[in-house]
Specification:
EC 2.3.2.27
């Protein structure tokens, strides 16, 4: 009698385990399909980003690339209207005349200087019952002097490309050379006034950015030759972007290619993951039918 009861309990336990396994499989299949579908969706998105980036890289490579040398001068002299509508010119920054000296860093000179002073304040938020930080733009000063691009590796160059209207150019080409945060000195009276008014100063932030003399940049724009044999790079008349890049042309292209390769790798990763999940699901279904 006890043996029969034991066998019954064993069979009941096995049946419960089988039911739970089937329930787990039934729940697992939709989850696997959803995960695989998500992988394929992300793979398609990453492929679109990869395709767009590859087209962008291809268009960048089609832009004529020059250095400010006699070869460029000959090409520009032979062109129609003494004009190249859109080119990339890679060179070193050289001031035309006296450069700008940094206000904070000794023996540091540039051709574009941007000094920004921000005030950090705290304001009492009655809804949140707390102090909220806020940055206020107090003052921003920009100074420029005329500058040219000369051929890398040449200390004295007879040929250069004058860069016009650099403040109209896009690109993060300024280098931060100084940053300082001065904490506000708060006395007892200031603290009382701040509590009553609901606002109080916290700190003063100073920042100086320069386009330094001797730095390497690549400029994209329209190149013209004037009557005095001076080459000038200026904003394009056809609406294309006027850009200054703080690097050489090769490094600039390489960064874009690395970005394209990243999207390509993510496309392959998510695609393979999706196919692996679907393959595992099909393999499990086949083995279940064989049983």
């Amino acid at each position: 009698m006890k043996s029969a009861v034991g066998r019954g309990l064993l069979l009941t336990g096995l049946e419960t385990t089988r039911v739970r396994a089937e329930m787990s499989d039934n729940l697992l299949h939709p989850l696997t399909v959803i995960c695989a579908g998500s992988c394929f969706a992300f793979s398609g998105l990453f492929y679109k980003l990869y395709s767009d980036k590859r087209q962008e890289v291809q268009k960048l490579k089609e832009i004529p690339n020059f250095q400010p040398d006699h070869h460029l001068l000959r090409i520009l002299s032979a062109s129609s209207n003494k004009r190249l509508h859109y080119v990339a010119v890679e060179g070193l920054v050289q001031a035309v005349g006296e450069p700008i000296s940094s206000q904070y860093v000794p023996r540091c000179h540039g051709v574009i200087q941007k000094i920004t002073v921000h005030e950090h304040w705290k304001y009492w938020n009655s809804s949140l019952k707390t102090w909220v930080s806020k940055k206020v733009n107090k003052q921003q000063t920009t100074n420029t002097v005329p500058f040219s691009l000369i051929q890398p590796g040449s200390y004295i160059s007879e040929v250069s490309v004058r860069v016009d209207s650099p403040l109209e150019a896009r690109g993060d080409f300024l280098e931060q050379v100084h940053k300082r945060l001065r904490q506000a000195k708060e006395g007892l009276m200031d603290a009382v006034v701040g509590e009553l008014s609901g606002e109080k100063p916290v700190a003063l932030e100073e920042r100086e950015e320069l386009l330094r003399v001797g730095s390497s940049i690549t400029a994209f724009g329209e190149l013209v030759l004037e009557q005095d044999k001076v080459m000038r790079l200026q904003p394009p008349k056809d609406g294309r972007s006027y850009v200054l890049i703080p690097s050489d042309y090769k490094s600039f292209i390489q960064r874009h290619e690395n970005c394209a390769n990243m999207w390509k790798g993510l496309t392959a990763l998510f695609g393979i993951t999706g196919f692996t999940l679907i393959g595992g699901l099909i393999h499990g279904a086949i083995n279940k039918d064989k049983k």
